[in-house]
Amino acid sequence: VEKPLRLYNTLTRRIEDLVPAEPGHVRMYVCGMTVYDYCHIGHARAMITFDVVHRHLLHRGFTVDFVRNHTDVDDKIIRRAAAEGVPALELSARFIQALQEDLKGLGLLPPTAEPKVSEHIPEIIDLVGRIVAQGHGYPAGGDVYFSVESYRSYGQLSGRSVEDLHVGDQADADPKKRHPADFALWKAAQPGEPAWESPWGPGRPGWHIECSAMSMKYLGERFDIHGGGSDLVFPHHENEIAQSECGTGLHPFVRYWMHNGMVTLAEEKMSKSLGNIITIREILREIPGETLKLLYLGGAHYRNPVPYSTEALAEALVALDRLYQAREAADEGATRVEAGVSGDLNAIATDFGEPGRDLLRCVDDFSSAFDGAMDDDFSTPGAVALLFDLVRHTNRFAALPKARVRGAPLLAKARTSFALAADVLGVGAAVPLGFFEEMKGKRLAAMGLERAWVEDRLEARAAARHDRNWPLADQIRSELDARSIIVMDGPQGSNWRVRV
Ligand SMILES: [Zn+2]
To answer: Residues 89, 44: contact at Cβ < 8 Å?
Structure first.
């Protein structure tokens, strides 16, 4: 019997076995973005965390229904749209488009559904109606509020009590609310805002109700996993549980609650970071998206804060470059095996001495060790460490004379381990040549260099070498090197790379 996958449940504050309601089928909802601006590196953490959860569940053979919403009706969207003089839904559509580009750039798998609030107003009105009918909600002057005192379990997720929430909120309490912690399910229409007809008059949904209504529509009234950033535990997720359980009368709404930690700006100056949020697209302009994934997945367990700095990102880029050098050697080995190179793996490992034996041991153990780390509450730092053991052993082996030819079967075996890591982490998933070309393009652009200039200098150097003008050839090599362009001379001519 296969060992179960284990995960930390915020609701029970324990590590538990994952037992979905329907065996083999996981239904998961993750809170998406409020689409009023470009996504920043904090949003990327949640996206990357749950992409890996999604990928690992698929790898473990589950059927996964993964729903992530777009909040396209919201105060911030309305304010920004008013400032720009465009309709709110036009602004949100523009940022949904930008979000999709960013996530594609990061190489994330698309969810199975991405519902928008604006397209689920009837479902939301229906759920609010059910909550009111059960006596857990009350209309007040065109708004509808949820009554926290009506629900005995309020506070179960965040560990707060209704009594605690009373303290300190009295002074600026909204007179329309029965309790200061009561929250809006429906907000009365304001001039210039998007509004829909409802039994309580024209208005729009409160923030929390959308996730209850949309998750239940796509996943059923009860489902397996609900995810989001740790900043959403209270009040958003607490309120989702209250609304959903009071609307349906079913408990628990969700079996497992998962929350990712925040991104901390480690070495950036605070003055720089304030009001100057780093967006995903800024990063993608300069480096491949897998770099940020590697920084997050290797840098911390998903529940812990992860430090972000430009130095840490640069280190991740160097590591990614080494990963692709190893993958290139492994791919080449697989190509040679397809072309007929064969050999016994133990004999090859012995022939090449310690580096051969180390690589063979690494690939033999890889899959079980990797799955073991990921089954242990998605411990990506452990999985990334295993991946980089594989990188180190592969590069050391591939650097030995004749290893790329005679050692091809062992390199081909390593390729299956790289493929597993790429499937689950989404790191090392590109074709190596494509990665190196992307790196060249983005690094040259970041340095303000033209590819044509590099190629021109390389041609001049080739001509100098042809004329046996070694001082000139060396001078051009130094000139390129000073701009981080490394020239590599091989039997098929010269190639070049950008130093990372
Ligand atoms: Zn939500």
So the answer is: no
Kindly report whether the peptide bond that precedes residue 252 is cis, defined as omega within 30 degrees of 0. yes
Position 275 confidence tier, pLDDT thresholds 50, 70, 90? very low
Whether this prediction's pTM lies above 0.85 is answered by yes
Based on C-alpha coordinates, what's the Rg of the chain?
Answer: 27
- For tokens 């929390």, name the residue: 208
Cα–Cα dist 311/359, whole Å: 30
The alpha-helical segments, DSSP class H, found in 339-447 are: 345-351, 353-375, 380-398, 403-406, 408-425, 432-447
Closest of 248, 223, 229 to residue 65, by C-alpha: 223
Q: How far is the CA of 226 from the centre of ligand 1 (A)?
A: 9
pLDDT of residue 489: 85
Q: Which two tokens stand for residue 472?
A: 């000139």
Distance from residue 33's CA to the centre of ligand 1 (Å): 9
Query: Helix 209-219 crosses helix 238-248 at what angle (to 10 degrees)?
Result: 60
CA of 44 to the centre of ligand 1 (A): 16
Residues around ligand 1, an ion, CB closer than 5 A: 31, 211
Residue ranges in 62-87 assigned as alpha helix (H): 75-84
Tracing tokens 């605690």 back to the chain, one arrives at: 164
- Is residue 491 packed enough to be buried (19+ CB in 10 Å), middle (13-18) or exposed (0-12)? exposed
User: Do 34 and 205 touch, CB atoms closer than 8 A?
Assistant: no
Q: Tell me the three state secondary structure of residue 32.
A: coil
Mean pLDDT of the chain: 94
Two tokens, residue 127: 């759920």
